[in-house]
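Supplementary Note 3. Input sequence used for the single-chain structure prediction.
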Amino acid sequence: MALAAAEADVMFAGLAGRPVVALAVSGGADSLALLDLVRHWALRRASPPELVVLTVDHGLRPESAVEARMVAAIAAGHGLRHETLAWDEPKPATGIEAAARAARYRLLAAAARRSGADVVVTAHHRDDQAETLLMRLGRGSGIAGLGGMPEARLLDRGILLFRPFLDVPKTRLVATARVAGFLPVEDAMNADPRFARARLRRLMPALAAEGIDAATLARAARQFRRADEALTALTQAFLDRALTTNALGMARMPRDRLAAEAEETRFRALGAIIAAVGGSGEAPGEEKLAALVTAAGAGTPFRRTLGGAVIRTQGGDLVFHREPGRLDGTEAALPRGYAGRWDGRFEVAIGGAEGITLAPLAGRGYAELPERFRARPRAAVETVPAFRREGRLVAVPAVGFATPGSEGLRSREVAAARLGGSRQAGGRLHHDRE
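The predicted structure, written as discrete structure tokens, is reproduced below.
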């Protein structure tokens, strides 16, 4: 049964008020149904958004260019903007599924930004969600992974990825596309046994016969996601109570407070701290985290590196800071007006300054600092961003150092600071020094 207008109104409520909405449309039945439903939903709005149709051509099949032109013709027939996004980078010999997915989202985010959209809508459905759960179960994913695909997540800075059909079976989207008069294409790769998702898709009828159908798996994913959200909230509450951070990107936590928490909270808290302090945004794997949890609870001094972070004991505390040896020491020239993220940890901006370069303070930079700015520990200080002009050190905002004429040069530690909410180490440097 095709989806009705009243159902679409509920599903697309989150799109109301947006001036531009980007739709990811491949030419398959599900994405063509998305195009038809969103187009009619927009026509029912008093102030409809502009719709932009985006088609990614991965270049993996000879038919893909023809399919992109078909979608372009459909969009033009409805007076909609369309852009084909070509993945023209060299293709990897292995891991093509993951590489293609990463490229698709990167291309979609960039195109959405160019078009003025702050949201990309995809047609992932309940069957996709069920397959995702099975794939992650096979990889031994934890609760977060078993939660499957979220309905909405941040795709890129300022760009939201929205999946309104995760509770909708594919059969209803196929019916919707048929009622709309579309002749969808079928990607042969969807049935290619070289790919894990295609192999799982072939197993679904047998699993359904045992009661493990797409609806059951999607329901399990929702339950896992709710559990993950609850555990995430508990972990954040613990970090807000127990963690302190400073302008150097360091974090500190009493060992006894960590030991008093449930094991899952300990794993999550340490993973989140390392992801932030190490600059990668990703927690270490289960086995490495387990070894760290054991060491943290043993009560004996230790020092180790993990995920780009140094973790060591100091008295009764665990102290975390960026690993100096893992930093990219390249001195980058910044264009006038530059603002962005550095090393995944600091937001930096140079205002109207010219001739500015940016690199870690490491090495000779620490020696160039006047004595009163040489905060401790040195290993952490050397990982903060330092601004230079013509090779001369002009500003290290994280320690409060600035020379005359460098007032517009700014850095603000954001990664570790966000872990502990508004808590800040007493007597330490403020997070937003110029």
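Confidence is low (pLDDT under 50) at residues 422-434. The chain has three domains: 5-220, 234-324, 326-419.
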